Please model this.
Amino acid sequence: MPVTEKDLDLLFNSVLILHFKMLKEEYGVRSFEMMPSPGSPLYMEDEDERPVPLYVPLCRNMGLHPIVLQSFDLGKVRFIRTMTERLDRRFVLVDVGANVGLFARQCLAEMAYLSRLYLYEPHPENFEQLTRNMAGQANAELNQFGLGPEPGTFRLYMDPNTCGNYSLNANAVPDGADFADVEIRPSVEEQAKWLSSGEEVIFKSDTQGFDEAIATSLDLEFWKSVRLGTMELWRLPGKEYDEDRFAKILDGFPIKVFQSNPRQPVTTADVIKMNGDGSGDVDDIFFFKP
Model:
């Protein structure tokens, strides 16, 4: 009988969370190494065709799925593949908020037509694991800084329960959460690299409440070279971005859907209205040109 999401939640909440907590708090364990099975979504080889181990964070939302299912949020990756593989061309992948590299590894496994990857992760511990998880990938550029409208050192707030929930917006994490100072560089300074090959871009941003600020800090001309994009839209208070400019970006993509209901197209007006309601709900949006 296959393992279900419900089974995983039950297993984690009843047993493994106690062991994870003990290992982390009593012994300082931050991650563990595993070797994904050949053919699984997280399996990857280096340039010499040697398997690359996967380093999995010891935290609530990211630790168990890679172990049991050998995948993580695979639906997002396969939706992107479905929308791009039929186009029969090469793409550049931009991954803003790459975390430890689970998304990028699965993209490499699922999409052989990626010519170059640009990954951005400002948190030192996450970046260390990202470096390990992307070892031996000559076509991947790893950057230990985040992107935004302005350069500087900014406070990154860290959810104590999950290393996948780090944000520049304090409203994205519980009260009293820890923080670290990280480097942010202007998004617009990076876009020339992404376009240097002349290939179209797949753009992914997952920054817990900062995606709109990153998107609107890029040139509008850049978005003409993006074939498909996905962002996490978290309806948090305290988000600051140019709403009209964000609408112009979305208007450039004829098809827009939410990950929660990918068969139901939405309009730019729908997205703007939903995104501003301050409910605290979250959903990923996909926008693309057919």
